[in-house]
Amino acid sequence: MLRAAGRGLAALWRAVVFAFTRSLQLRIIALTSVLTVVAIYGVGSFMSQQIARGLFEARRNSVSNQTAGYVAEFESLSGITDRDELVDTLSTQLRSKVSNSPTPLRSIALEPVGGNRSVPPIGAFPYGEESVRVADLPGEFRSAVADGQDGEQLYESVELPGSLHSPGLVIAQRVTIPQAGSFELYVVADLEKEQDTLEFVQRALLVAGLVLVVLVGAIAWIVTRLVVVPVRTGAQVARQLADGDLDQRMPVNGSDEIATLAESFNDMADALQDQITRMEQLTVLQRQFVSDVSHELRTPLTTIHIASDLIYESREDFDESTRRSAELLNSQVERFELLLGDLLEISRHDAGAAQLVTKPVDLSEIVTGVIDTVAVVAEQAGTELLVHAPSSPVMAEVDRVRVTRIVRNLVVNAIEHGEQRRIDIYVGSNAEAAAISVRDHGVGMSEEQVEHVFDRFWRADPSRRRTLGGSGLGLAISLEDAHLHAGWLQAWGRTGEGSCFRLTLPRRQGQAIASSPLPLPPADAVLRGGTTLVAGPSTSDGSVRVQTGSIPIVVEVAEHSAEAAVQQGGARSDGAARSGPAQSDGAQSGRAPGPGAEPTEEGP
Predict the structure, then answer these.
(1) Segment Disordered: which positions (predicted)?
(2) Are 132 and 160 in contact (CB under 8 A)?
(3) Which of 89, 283, 301, 338, CA to CA, is 20 to 30 A from 579?
(4) Residues 35 and 64 occupy one common structural domain
């Protein structure tokens, strides 16, 4: 029960904190109410103290005047020489004063002073009330009265005996009675009526304070609603504008400051819509221009290529300078043709004309074929290629040409930036997806570079010498090809620790991907801070996504087990395929289990 109650209170507290942090209106109402309570408490306390002081002072002055009158009467007694008669007279007068006092009295007492023993202590008490004797009064007060001078009055606040323990006031004064000697006169007044008055005023202040808090809270709610509702509307409209609905506008009511804000917001939205529309039109024109130019250049480039080939084939008949020019011309024409091909391909994607030709394909065979084509380049670069693949085929319905182009781009980029270090290529699958991961251990990428790695014509280091050419469109085209398959192409990198690109494809066309069979960041990555930056399309595998520019950035919590790292390391010692400078006949193919793979799974 206690644990359940504790969990309930914790959940309630979390809900209150969540609502308090998410609602500006709630914070303003709560803050206004708290400040109102503090102000009312301060003012009420001050007023209560002032009223209590006033009631006490009024009663003290009244009882003090009565006491002075009693002293005058006692001092005027004369002609009574008999002791018993004097005692009877004093007792009668004391009872009469208690009965006829305009102020409720609890007792009047005469105490002999010093050696005066002619008259015993005399006291009078009201009928039906518990008596207050002189011995019950505070000792310090009685000592002060005994040391006082004739005519000096002293007073003390006391608590009267009884069930209600009402407050009381004691006033004492020295008095000298003829024929009887010196006495101390103690007059005890009951302040119950004053206490009742004070409590009534306090209750009235409390009720008024509660009503005022409710009224102030209601006023704060109304006022903040007048401000918060337009702010919420503006936030909703801004969110819809950010989602692409550029026709949304804030409602304008009246001509106050909120209306002015709404008009300014709408003017900004109009200007933004106009700019975006013009940018979209410009983008369409640019893409159309690139497409038209690419197609128009196709025919003259073919003619130039034929002429370049004829000149290149006859280069041995030229002098050294002309022969070098012929070789340079041929290489640049080939590079121009590759660039033109990339431009045509990206234009087809922009126009929505790219089509898939899918059939069941073993992704391991695609990786092996790519390694065969780049083996000479890897050998010249001094780079070892290492394949980690399951023993059974990793089948998926894909466009073989496009997937081959993606893998080749990734492997060539890894060779280019791998700093002559080993490149690991992983192939894996699960029930719904198949994946290829290319991991290099070279220069790596910073977070800023990861954000732009799929941008068109973008290079991480433009001044870096490139041995394999490239148009700057390879990764952009690869990303479009992955999207065409309804798959993911994601990138991870860290400066000095290398990079990793993961291609995840559905095993059957139209099948949704929930997770990738290969980890990203890679299992062998040294993770710091618990999170890392991954660029690529939004996924549904539990990642937290942040939109940055035109590229969705996925911030994944990097928690890889040591077992995954051991699996990666073990794959290099039990039959992984290798390609590198030690081989003279290109890359050989072979398969070994990779992280996340399913060795016993058959293709569709």
Answers:
(1) 563-604
(2) yes
(3) 338
(4) yes
Q: Are residues 272 and 223 in the same domain?
A: no
Please tell me the distance from the alpha carbon of residue 155 to that of residue 67, in angstroms, as a whole number.
11
Cα(461)–Cα(458) distance, integer angstroms: 9
DSSP 432: S
| 546 phi and psi angles, rounded to 5 deg | -130, 125
Please give the span between the terminal C-alpha atoms of the chain, in angstroms, as a whole number.
54
**Cα dihedral across residues 386, 571, 596, 588: positive or negative:** positive
Residue 352: the pLDDT is 67
DSSP class of residue 109? E
pLDDT tens profile 231-279: 888 888 888 888 878 888 888 888 878 888 888 888 888 888 888 888 8
- 484 contacts: CB under 8 Å, gap ≥ 6: 349, 354, 356, 399, 402
Q: Say which amino acid occupies 387.
A: V
Q: Are 28 and 224 in contact (CB under 8 A)?
A: yes
In a domain, 134, yes or no: yes
The Cα–Cα gap between 364 and 590 comes to 9
User: How far apart are alpha carbons 440 and 412 in whole angstroms?
Assistant: 11
Confidence band (pLDDT; 50, 70, 90) for 556? very low
Q: Looking up tokens 């394999």, which residue turns up? A: 468
Determine whether 104 is exposed, middle or buried from the number of CB atoms within 10 Å of its CB (0-12, 13-18, 19+). Answer: middle
Cα separations in angstroms, 135 against 107, 154, 497: 12, 17, 93
Interatomic CA distance for residues 146 and 5, integer angstroms: 63
Which pLDDT band holds residue 204 (cuts at 50, 70, 90)?
A: very high
In a domain, 11, yes or no: no
* CATH number of the CATH domain containing 487: 3.30.565.10
Strands 385-388 and 423-429: parallel
Count of positions (residues) in the chain: 604
CATH, residue 78? 3.30.450.20
Segments forming the whole domain that contains residue 573: 356-579
In this structure, the answer to whether residues 372 and 327 fall within a common structural domain is no
Coil, helix or strand for 531? strand
Residue 537 predicted with pLDDT over 60: no
- Cβ-based neighbours of 37, under 8 Å, separated by 6 or more: 209, 213
The total number of structural domains that make up the chain: 3
Tokens standing for residue 37: 């309570």
In DSSP notation, 131-144 reads ---GGGS-HHHHHH
Residues of the chain above pLDDT 90, percent? 8
Residue found by looking up tokens 């009420």 in the block? 44
Range list of β-strands (E), 355-432: 358-362, 385-388, 395-399, 423-429
How far is 291 from 299, CA to CA, in rounded Å?
A: 14
Mean pLDDT for the stretch of residues 361-382: 88
- Tell me the average pLDDT of the chain: 77
At 200 the pLDDT is: 92
Residue 207's pLDDT band, with cuts at 50, 70 and 90, is very high
| Averaged pLDDT, 320-345 | 77
Assessment of whether the complete model's pTM goes beyond 0.70: no
